[in-house]
């Protein structure tokens, strides 16, 4: 990127920043200047566009839209003027000091020229919407389409009279039914085609509440953009005050769009600003890494260790390393209670009453009781005969006796365990008492 282009870009960005600041100031001023409405929504700023630089806008059909910041809205109204409803729309906008863009139909302008002049007197932008509002411009012969466009412009200019130059070169195709040849013709005439970014479906047979809901929900989904409404609809008249109130409550700002003239240059913008959601790489740019060109590629000598050492420092380092580390000596101070000795527990403190034989016998009998209980449970579960249950119990008793023999190492213990098991038919309880001694 050349230095001259960087300078132009910096100038444009500065101009845009100043434009936004001026718009905020205009918003505060316009809201404060509304007679009897100090808390009016107001018009945040005026955007000047060149139709020849951006001939088609509105993301419902085209790639580009108006260069709006987040939470900025452009209000547009089609099909008027119709005094019964259009005049109420003008009063609602005036009460909030809001400026909009109106696309008039030629037949309506001829029938109600005073309504077109009211738009101009209120400071709104005036575009055209064909002569008869045909919903066939996408398939009619191009000559017929040209006549619809030209006659609609002529009718609006006739209604404006001496102020015909105030008509903006803005055009909205009826029903948004675009065609390539129609768009080419309008571009040749220097007329900007306006589509929209979102609708409120107010031309349908729906309630004013539904109009409000659609306008707000679709705006919230987009975050900014061109809203298309119809000033001839009673449901729009009923919904508009709530729409404006909600825009104010949620921090949206109204932008007024006017065409560029010789005395009024277009607002400086960047190409990516004409996209509803510009790509991430178009929002911020990190500085590029410079490309260095070296005059020569000669090598430098490798530094020696002596280049970084001083003779005195080397001597001190050698002396320190030869003497070895001097770690602190461990403390030899005895603790204050080093001479205190605790009494040793007596050997009979842990004796069992009856000795180890009694304890082992008790453990074996306890195991036998659990085995007998388990055998009885198995007998009940499997419905075994008494002989089978006794045989199963004797087998378990034999295993218990064998375990006692292995643990104590004597045949007498095994016989005593077996005898105890065969003598007692019911539950056997053996109490092992441990003598407690207090120190």
**Kindly state the mean pLDDT as a whole number?**
79
For the report, how would you describe the main beta sheet?
A: 7 strands, parallel
Shape field: elongated
Helix content: 40-55%
Catalogue the unreliable spans.
1-31, 410-425, 428-432
Q: Into which percentage range does the β-strand content fall?
A: 5-15%
Q: How far is it from the N-terminal to the C-terminal residue, by CA?
A: 96 Å
How many beta-strand segments?
A: 10
Radius of gyration: 50 Å
Q: What's this model, at a glance?
A:
Helix content is 44%, strand content 10%. The protein is an alpha/beta fold. The strands form two sheets. Strands 1, 3, 4, 5, 8, 9 and 10 form a seven-stranded parallel beta sheet that branches. Strands 2-7-6 form a three-stranded parallel beta sheet.
Question: Any overview of this molecule?
Answer:
It is a single chain. This protein is α/β, with parallel strands linked by helices and 439 residues long. It is 44% helix and 10% strand. The strands form two sheets. Strands 1, 3, 4, 5, 8, 9 and 10 form a seven-stranded parallel β-sheet that branches. Strand 3 (72-78), helix 2 (83-95) and strand 4 form a beta-alpha-beta unit.
Topology (elements, then pairings):
Elements: H1 3-32, E1 45-49, E2 56-57, E3 72-78, H2 83-95, E4 101-104, H3 106-111, H4 113-121, E5 125-128, H5 142-160, E6 170-171, H6 180-188, E7 192-194, E8 198-199, H7 208-222, E9 225-230, H8 234-249, E10 253-259, H9 311-323, H10 355-382, H11 386-408, H12 411-423
Parallel strand pairs: 1-10, 2-7, 3-4, 3-9, 3-10, 4-5, 6-7, 8-9
Helix pairs in contact: 2-8, 4-5, 5-6, 7-8, 10-11, 10-12, 11-12
